[in-house]
Every structure is written in structure tokens, then in C-alpha cells.
Design goal:
248 residues; alpha/beta; four-stranded mixed beta sheet; 10 helices
Length: 248
Amino acid sequence: MSEDQSGNGSGRKSWVDKIGKAFSNLPRNRDELKELLQEVFEEGILDADALAMMIGALDVSETQVRDAMIPRSQMVVVPHNVEINSFLPRIIESGHSRFPVVGEDKDAIIGILLAKDLLPFVASGGEKFDLTSAIRPAILIPESKRLNMLLRDFRSSRNHMAIVVDEYGGVSGLITIEDVLEEIVGDIADEYDSQTEALVMPIGPGRFQVQALTPIDELNEAVGSNFDDHDYGTIGGLLMAECGRVPA
């Protein structure tokens, strides 16, 4: 009995040790996860596109609304007490599809007007337009809200614009789903550029990815090669000479 218990206990301990060891090398925060992804990239398991998307997604999860919003001074708003016909040229000029409707100032948000709701008014040649009935509810969010959380909310609620308020409840700007997506794409593009700007990148043991415009002398210095740079200045020129054509 005691031997069985001892054996079972030993077995359980062995499995706990194995599980603990397996998880001990996992990243504990975003910085460690980024370092791990960078190492995987350098081993050639990930390419620059995949690495950029992964790190870009991590960066967006840390980005707050205040970093991507349209500031209050640049907001194009529709005053609730004006004839829409007098404000229509401003709406058309802006090229936006959604507009905050305000009261006395930009802090008095009444709702959101969609440009598409003006089509009947335009098509009818300027007949009476009831702005009040066309106004949709405005969503208010804090400056500190994370972009990834806002994108999830946009998708679930089908709202594509939110009014950003500061800690005192005043309007500090607005943000649309297009702004969020642009920020995400921009972060990914920046990360991709940072990974591909290097002329020579290791992609595995003894293997390197080399940009065609890399000077031959820099390649020789980076990887310890001895390509002749007497007749050609770049690795692209050398390859074209060797192949007799432009390589795929």
C-alpha cells in the first residue's frame, strides 16, 4: 500500500515537474513575447509579414483612443439649430460620412447624423428636412479606452463613430472605425518596415535574406563572404551577371 502511494505520489510529482518546466520558459509579459517572436523570426520560422502582424496586434492592444482620435479642433459638427441647406456645402466638402450634432458648443453633443440620411433631402431638391428625427444616439467613450476593445465594441454594436471625452466629461475629440483600422494598419506597416529595413537578415543557420541593393562589401562584412565587388557594386548586379537575366 505504502509503495503504491509512494509511487503514485512520485508519479504525480513527476508530472507536475514536467508541466512546470514546460511553462517556465513561456513569456510572462508583452515585452518577453515580442522578444520570443523576434527570436522565432530570426530562426526563419516566421517571415517579416507574419512578425509585423503579430507585433502590430500587440502594439494596438496597448494603444489608447487618445493616440488615434480626431482632436476636438478638427471635428466637423452640425449645429442643431441651423437649416441643413445652409450647412450642406460644409458636409459635402468634408467628405465624411458621419457628423456629430451639437448644441451651443462641441461639449453639447446631441447625437450623430449620417450623411446617407441626407439623400432624400438632396434628391427631393431641398424639401423640408427634419434634423431631429434623423439624429442617431452618440456613443461616449473615455480617452483611455484601448483600441482593440473599441474595435470589438464597434463590431458588436454596429456603431462606427464614438465621441471621446476627457476625465472632466468635456469633449476632446472623436474616433471612427476607419481611424482604428488605419492605426492598426499603420502599426503593422511600421513594424514591417523596421524588420525589412536591414539589408542582411539571418533567416536560419547559415542562411540570410539579402536585399538586392545591398553593397557587396557590406554583405561580405556582415556574413564573412568574399564576393568580388570589382565589377559590380550590389548583390543584385552580381546575381544578374551570374544568371544572365533578372532572377525571379
